[in-house]
Amino acid sequence: MFELRDLRWAVTASQHRSLRQAAQSLNIRQSTLSRRLRDLELQLGATLFERTNGGTYPTIAGLDFLESAQRILEEAEAITVRLKNRARGESGRLAIGVHSSLSAGNLRATLIEHRRRYPNVETYLSDGSSDHLISDLGSSSLDLAFVVAGNARWNGRSLPVWSERVVAAIAENDPLCGRDVIHWNDLAQESLLLPLRGPGPEFHQLLTNRLGDSKFSRVIFHDVALDRFLTLVGAGCGILLALEGATGVSYQGVCFREIHDSDGPTRLMFHAIWRQDNDNPSLQPFLQMLQERYPDLSAESPAA
Residue 128's closest CA among 100, 93, 167? Predict the structure, then answer.
């Protein structure tokens, strides 16, 4: 049976119309090329080339064969390129768990940069709480997740990436909206809205740490998207705790204000987490990009 090499040699011979020139371009002996083409013709039971003193020319049967051969070679090359790209992580699929809004901030910028560098990698996003995303990592449903640091359940690989300020979304007619910043004590008597899927549990822990279990009035969890939350805020149903990534959304009747501790804005630190045994080729380039974008932080926890 003939090989891809035989097809390539036959196509090269047809392009040069000279066995001597074709052999030179292939860096082989002319006798080797001539013998292999005759063996190919014997296998096919057809004469592919007419050999004359003026050159070597494809026959009618040869033209038909060479057209198919060229198509096979192009398809083989395309398959080779795709497989090499996949092996280098330049194509394929990457499943990422997200823990905050994508309307602004580092997470959004990171995903945009990854898309620019690796346009052939299909990115699948999944939203959830830290516990939910960690469970999905454990079951290999996700390749990587961005979560608020400090979850004791995770004992896999971790890379510190960025911090986000904690903000409050407030109805514009609320007196708190008239302040430049607000403090945790200002929220003690307010109805507070927290997300179930995002960092709601972390916000609840912040409230407990800052105000104590009995010092905040009412906390309401909702399992809805950001735009639904902002509708509730604008309607006067409560104050939403969110991260600064949510501030890229402009919503009528709603303002955003930073929440401060005594020493400045309250921040939550984020880590990228993944399983050591994850063999998805697209993961390593993503981790390398994170190290480039956040070198001061990534130096603390190399993504080896």
Answer: 100
Residue 6 burial (C-beta neighbours within 10 Å; 0-12, 13-18, 19+): middle
- HEC string of 206-237 equals HHHHHHCCCCCCEEEEECCCHHHHHHHHHCCC
Phi, psi for 178 (deg, rounded to 5):
-80, -5
In terms of Cβ atoms closer than 10 Å to its own Cβ (0-12, 13-18, 19+), residue 286 is: buried
Q: pTM, whole model, 2 decimals? A: 0.66
Q: Are 18 and 55 in contact (CB under 8 A)?
A: yes
Walking along the chain (304 residues) 10 residues at a time, the average pLDDT comes out as 84 88 89 89 89 87 89 80 63 84 80 90 87 87 87 80 92 92 90 87 87 73 88 93 85 92 90 90 90 70 42
Catalogue all structural domains in the chain, each as residue range(s) with its CATH number: 4-87 (1.10.10.10), 95-268 (3.40.190.290)
By CB neighbour count within 10 A (0-12 exposed, 13-18 middle, 19+ buried), where does 1 fall? exposed
Residue 283 is given by DSSP the state H
| Contact call for residues 176 and 159 (beta carbons, < 8 A) | no
Tokens read off for 187: 């929220």
Largest CA distance in the chain: 101
- Buried/exposed code over 215-250 (b: 16+ C-beta within 10 A; e: otherwise): ebeebeebeeebeebbebbbeeebbbbbbbbbbebe
